[in-house]
Each structure stands twice: as C-alpha cells, then as structure tokens.
C-alpha cells in the first residue's frame, strides 16, 4: 500500500519538468487509442459472426444427426427411431442430400439436391425466405417440384418460374460406365417449378442447393429406404444443448449430433481465426504505445532522485521504491484502458444506432448497409486484462534497470 500511495501522488502531482506531463498524457492517449481499436475491431467481428449465425437459422435445423461412417444409413435404424420418439422433439425430418448435374436449355451446373419431407417448413423457417408467386410445395400428383436458390436460378436462367422442366442427372450407384453410350451410366429425372425460389443470403446455399421431396432424391441417388441426415427441431421450452447431450447418449459413437454452429464449423472457425489475428496485431500496436510509458517513467525516476534518497533514509527498501514506479506505469495503462473502453463502447453504440460507417460503394448490395457491431462482455474483460498485462510487462524491466542504476548512484 505504501508504494501504491506514493505512485498515486506522483501520478497526479505537478512535475517540475513539463515534458514529463506531456509524455504521460501522450502515453495515456496512446494506450486509449489502442484499447479503443481493440474494442471496436473485435465488436465488428462479433457483429459479422452474429449476422451470419442469424442467416443460417432460416435453412439449417436446430440439430442434425448424421452417420459417422458412410454418407447414408437405413431410415429405420433403431437408434434413430429412439431419437424421433424423444418427448423433447417437436419436428423430425428425414433428408437425402447429394450432388447432381442440372441442365436447363443450354446451361448446366453442378448442384446439391436436398430431398426433404413435407414437414420441412415446420422444421425450418423456409417459408420466410421464399421469393415468387408460389408457395412451399414439393410434389403434386406425379410431378416433383424443385425450389432452387436464387443465385443458382440466375446461373441457369430459370427465373421465379421455369416453363420447361429442369433436367437432373446423377451417376448410377451400381454397374460400369459404357463409354459407347455414356448416358446409360446416369439416372435422369425432371423437376418442375413451384413458382418460388429461396434466398438465404448465403452463397453456399443460394448458388448450389435445390430443395425437393425426399422420394425424388432417393430415386435419383438409389437411396431407397435410406437417409443422409435426421434433422430435428426441439420444443420451445426445451434447452437445445441439453437435448443434444441426451441424443448423444442414445446414438453413442455411431452418429454425429451437431447444432447450427457445428453444422457451419468451417465458416465460424475461419471467422474466429480472423478475429484472433486482428487481436494479435492490435496487441502489437498496444505494445508500441506502451513505449511512451517507459519514456515518461525514466524521466520521472531521474526527477525524483532526491525523493528516492529521502525514502531510503526513512526506511524504504529497494523493492518498495522500484514498485512505486511499476505502479505508476500500471496506473497509466489502466487509465488509458478505461478511457479507451469507454470511447470504444460509445463508438460501437453510435454505429449500432446510426450506422455511421457504411460498406462503401457496395452499400445496398449486401445484407446490411453498415458494418454490424456486437459488443460481448467477455471481449471487454479480455481487452482490459491484456492492456494491464502488456503495460506491466512493458515497464517491468526498464523500471527495474533505471531504478537500480539510480539507487546505486544515490548509495555512492
């Protein structure tokens, strides 16, 4: 407490050399700017993370059960039947998903055919992302409907309604390909237009997927009685993580059980890596800003040479004297951190409220017109601890070095 009290007096007292006050002020400003940059940058990354997560909710199920080995499994598997019968499950949908070739007129594209059951609209919010004059419909009589993503429809020249059927080709699962008649090695079928497209606002889906009924997909891919995944929606009063654990205890090591974030693991992993790299770079800038504190403390140590002699005569030991200047540097760091956090949070609030910084000339072409921002409390705590740790480490060796030299000179 003695060292802290003296350090506090030194911090707020007027120095004989005005340059020390100026350098101390510059130190606080430098740390504050670096801290503010950390708060704003990490909050922007959080904003994009939350935005992407909200977009997936219209297409991805809350929970998805897939086999560990192979691409498909029997639909009447006893473990899957137990999962369907859980009281926490509100909707369970079997799906069959695989790649195929889509041809419309002279255009063609590799697509992902996703066959689903009729209750798919109860499983997800698919109806909220449909565009066009039709409705969510997968089959009528003997005709199978196909709902493509908006970007895929544009690539194939389909429009909301395509007059002629969309031809779909998939390789046969059995037999050898006859090069003389290569078409015999493929299963061909047709999809008709329900006069709607879906728009998830994610290229992964909008440029590749076609939703149709599961019977069409099973026939196309030779997957009769099989499924690629069991997609689930839990009851509103149930906790998804608890239901996930319960399902895992049932299926054991034979199936993956993934929530929405795990279904898009690659996307969110990349975003986390980018956020971490930004954090590292800004921390280096913070370290550079802390060098100003070293200059301020070194000048203060020289100015307080007589005070150090007096403190030693009063009984203060070398560690206590060195600790005074360590506390001084630490308080400068803490002050800069608090100012930076307050300014950073204010800027984040202004961006959330008014959208001050837009996305440039491309504004209007994206889902949002301004950079999204989301402040997470744990990020603020990490930033504050980082600033204090960097500030302490930055001044520890220089203070120890200068104080030793000064103490040795006063002894002599």
List keywords for this structure.
412 residues, 52% helix, two-stranded antiparallel sheet, alpha+beta, 13 helices
Note down, in words, how this protein is organized.
- With about 400 residues, this protein is α+β, with helices and mostly antiparallel strands.
- It has helices at about 1-10, 20-55, 80-85, 120-125, 150-155, 205, 215-220, 240-250, 260-265, 265-305, 305-315, 320-355, 375-410; strands spanning about 65, 75, 90-105, 105-115, 130, 140, 145, 145-150, 165-170, 185-190, 195-200, 210-215, 225, 230-235, 255-260.
- The longest helix has about 40 residues, at about 20-55.
Q: Give the helix/strand class.
A: alpha+beta
Q: Nearest-angstrom radius of gyration?
A: 32 Å
Order of helices and strands: HHEEHEEHEEEEHEEEHEHEEHEHHHHH
Helical fraction? 40-55%
Note the total helix count. Answer: 13
Topology:
Elements: H1 2-12, H2 18-56, E1 63-67, E2 73-74, H3 78-84, E3 89-104, E4 107-116, H4 120-123, E5 130-132, E6 139-140, E7 143-144, E8 147-148, H5 150-156, E9 166-171, E10 186-191, E11 196-198, H6 203-206, E12 209-213, H7 214-221, E13 226-227, E14 229-234, H8 240-251, E15 255-259, H9 260-263, H10 265-303, H11 305-313, H12 318-354, H13 377-411
Parallel strand pairs: 4-12
Antiparallel strand pairs: 1-14, 1-15, 2-13, 3-4, 3-9, 3-14, 5-11, 6-7, 8-12, 9-10
Helix pairs in contact: 1-12, 2-10, 2-12, 2-13, 10-12, 10-13, 12-13
């Amino acid at each position: 407490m003695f060292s802290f009290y003296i350090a506090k007096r030194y911090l707020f007292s007027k120095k004989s050399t005005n340059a020390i006050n100026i350098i101390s002020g510059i130190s606080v400003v430098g740390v504050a700017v670096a801290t503010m940059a950390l708060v704003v940058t990490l909050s922007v990354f959080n904003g994009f993370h939350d935005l992407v997560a909200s977009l997936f909710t219209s297409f991805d199920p809350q929970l998805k059960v897939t086999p560990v080995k192979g691409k498909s499994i029997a639909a009447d598997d006893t473990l899957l039947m137990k999962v369907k019968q859980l009281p926490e499950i509100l909707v369970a949908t079997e799906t069959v998903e695989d790649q195929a070739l889509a041809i419309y007129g002279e255009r063609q594209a590799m697509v992902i055919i996703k066959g689903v059951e009729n209750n798919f609209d109860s499983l997800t919010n698919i109806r909220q992302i449909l565009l066009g004059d039709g409705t969510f419909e997968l089959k009528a009589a003997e005709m199978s409907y196909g709902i493509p993503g908006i970007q895929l429809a544009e690539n194939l020249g389909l429009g909301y309604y395509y007059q002629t059927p969309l031809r779909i080709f998939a390789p046969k699962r059995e037999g050898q390909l006859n090069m003389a008649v290569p078409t015999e090695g493929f299963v061909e079928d047709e999809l008709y237009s329900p006069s709607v497209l879906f728009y998830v606002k994610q290229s992964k889906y909008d440029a590749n997927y076609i939703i149709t009924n599961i019977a069409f997909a099973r026939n196309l891919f030779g997957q009769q009685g099989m499924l690629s995944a069991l997609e689930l929606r839990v009851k509103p009063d149930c906790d998804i993580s608890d239901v996930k654990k319960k399902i895992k205890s049932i299926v054991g090591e034979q199936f993956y059980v993934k929530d929405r974030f795990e279904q898009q693991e690659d996307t969110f992993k990349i975003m986390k890596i980018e956020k971490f790299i930004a954090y590292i770079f800004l921390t280096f800038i913070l370290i550079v800003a802390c060098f100003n504190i070293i200059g301020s403390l070194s000048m203060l140590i020289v100015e307080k040479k007589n005070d150090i002699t007096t403190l030693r005569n009063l009984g203060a030991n070398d560690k206590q004297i060195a600790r005074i200047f360590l506390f001084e540097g630490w308080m400068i760091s803490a002050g800069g951190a608090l100012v930076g956090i307050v300014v950073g949070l204010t800027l984040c609030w202004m961006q959330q409220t008014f959208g001050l910084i837009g996305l440039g000339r491309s504004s209007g072409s994206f889902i949002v017109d301004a950079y999204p921002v989301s402040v997470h409390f744990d990020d603020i705590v990490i930033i504050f601890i980082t600033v204090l740790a960097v500030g302490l480490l930055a001044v520890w060796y220089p203070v120890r070095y200068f104080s030793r030299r000064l103490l040795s000179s006063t002894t002599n």
